[in-house]
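DATA CLASS: polypeptide
GOAL: derive structure tokens

***
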Amino acid sequence: MDEIVLDEFLPLEYAGHSSKGNQLKWKADNIWYKADYMGYESLAEVVVSGLLAYSDVENYVRYLPVEIQYKGKKYMGCKSNSFLGEGEEFVTAEHLFRQWKGGSLSAEMSKIPNVEGRIEYMVENVINFTGLVQFGKYIAIILAMDAFFLNEDRHTNNIGVIYEMETKTYRLSPVFDNGLALLADTMTDFSLEKSLEECMKRVEAKPFSRNFDEQLDAAEKLYGSNMHFSFGKKEVDRVLESCVCKYSDEIIGRVRDLLYFQMRKYQ
């Protein structure tokens, strides 16, 4: 596993992109580094992106494990290459809505009584703003991932598109930000003392429904089934092996058991 000393770089608080607080991150030489904050977020990022290699999703951010040293402290973390080119910026769905219509996208969606309607409202607005007609299929992929990996932190500030400032055009963003998947928040909601069954009953989806399968079913009804996995237990174990030396057997075991359970559920 790589180690990196980041004493020369000021950390950025990873604020506004999580509903659960601020995570330290750094950018050095066009590489982003994120430190664990709520539990084992970096493990979740590494595992989710590692297993996406065994899917038909092509546009995603790959995370690798790294030990971060900063000002005399060590953090378990992950690293990823920046997915933005020169003159590009990531624009959230929330920001797009405020820019084009004023007001809050999440607030407007909350007024819509059914899940399918909320999804369609976001998608149609983003398509109107950007011209990205594939955005509905993109959302269906994200919600399929979130249902399988139990990502509890999907919201209108980490769903977005990439804007190219010179040409004033948009493109789809790679799938990223899965750090609060796999019950990674051991600090507040899913402590290791709780059973896997108890945690799975408590975890809730966002942003269209609290139920993962309800979100997924609605999205697939609108835009079809757009992703498929092709991994088994061997591939899960192989991906987990890259982090086994830095996380406890208890954490690795819980993530393994969770993934095995989800494989049985969605096979």
User: Anything to note?
Assistant: The chain has a mean pLDDT of 94. The longest strand covers residues 73-81. The radius of gyration is 18 Å. The beta strands are 2-5, 12-14, 23-28, 31-35, 64-70, 73-81, 88-92, 160-164, 169-172.
